[in-house]
Amino acid sequence: MSAVLEIQGLQKTYRSRKGVRRALDGFDMVVEAGQVHGFLGPNGSGKTTTLRTLLGLIRPNGGRMAILGREVPAALPEVAGSVGAIVESPQFFANFTAQDTLRLLADAGGVEPARVFEVLELVGLRDRATDRVKTYSLGMKQRLAVASALLKNPKLLILDEPANGLDPGGIREMRTLMRNLAESGMTVVLSSHILAEIQLICDSVTIIAAGRRVAAGAVADVLAQHASSSVRVRLESAADLAASAGALRQLGAQVTVESDHLMVSGLDRPSAITRVLAGNGVFVSELSPVSVDLESVFLELTGTAPVEGEHRQVDQTVMAPAGPAQGGWGH
Ligand SMILES: Nc1ncnc2c1ncn2[C@@H]1O[C@H](COP(=O)(O)OP(=O)(O)OP(=O)(O)O)[C@@H](O)[C@H]1O
User: Fold this and answer.
1) Name one GO molecular function term (predicted).
2) Hey, whose CA ends up nearest to atom 7 of ligand 1?
């Protein structure tokens, strides 16, 4: 198996007085070796819960997970040395330099002191290694955090929201760093709720919504699959819109009726539209593919697209009534 990370049917419910919060609802994910893989989903969709479960920090209620072909959490003691992770932003001593910070961590983790210089070089902090952390930009602090996770030279690096709060320059540096790590043979998984970050940094992506996988694959494929299928159809007479929508739906298309046109998706070939409408004596004055912007693809997939006049909650976790806890591992 070349998958470095495999998750199948992961379940996690949080219990509180208000009920049971189903944070993960049969979540699946596969990450192949040598990829920079984006784990994308809106706030509250279950990303941190997945990563914390994977690292043995919380217990799932069901499903299975494997890292480097070994079932976890059972094999975590054996694979832990091959996994570097930052799931909560690490706090560094502001008055320490990056070099002192990493030396301390290397010493505590039984890592060769020489590795400190290697990781400083890798994350591009060598020139600032003897400056105090309090003089660093946010991007530099994030890279120091990555450096700390790289000390033990992991095969799999897991980063929760590493680009959070970074400006475009910081994101560019992070992208170069991730690319270099992947080229050195490392597999990188990074979570984000911002599509633009993932798109710039990652090869492949898993999109999560309400605790379930809603899309996965190469970034370009996922976007192409969901972005290029809509066609705007204008008719010579707007009076024909409703009847034409009905005819197209019979072909299996999804049709939205707008004030002066139709939006049609779900058809392999737009020529079917003109054919069926002409057959009904209706003539098309415009037929144009609509290039959906990438942010809307993500919002549509994750069901958080803003609805006019409504302030929808981004946190989309399902609340189920309180009931007996599901059987989980180690119970
Ligand atoms: N300890 C907890 N107790 C109860 N509910 C929790 C707990 N941790 C997370 N949740 C809930 O589980 C759901 C998933 O949260 P999670 O933090 O995994 O989402 P996320 O995708 O990482 O979000 P974000 O992008 O905001 O970090 C949310 O509804 C959250 O409120």
Assistant:
1) ATP binding
2) 14
**Alpha carbon of 46 to ligand 1 centroid (Å):** 6
Fold: same for 3-225 and 229-289: no
Q: Choose which residue among 13, 14, 88, 164 to substitute to test ligand 1 binding: the one with the highest number of ligand atoms within 8 A of its C-beta.
A: 14
Q: Quick one: which atom of ligand 1 is closest to the CA of 317?
A: 29
**Overall fold of domain 229-289:** Alpha-Beta Plaits (3.30.70)
The structure tokens 């809509």 sit at 230
Closest ligand 1 atom number to CA of residue 16: 4
Q: Residue 34 has which token pair?
A: 């040598």
Instruction: Give pTM, 2 decimals.
Output: 0.74
Is 144's pLDDT higher than 70?
yes
The yes/no answer to whether this complex scores an ipTM above 0.90 is yes
The ligand 1 atom at the shortest distance from the C-alpha of residue 50 is: 18
Q: What is the pLDDT of residues 282-316, one digit of tens each?
A: 999 998 877 655 566 677 777 755 444 444 334 44
List the chain domain ranges: 3-225, 229-289
The CATH topology of domain 3-225 is Rossmann fold (3.40.50)
Please report where in the chains the tokens 């094999």 appear, as a residue: 75
Give the single-character DSSP code of 312.
-
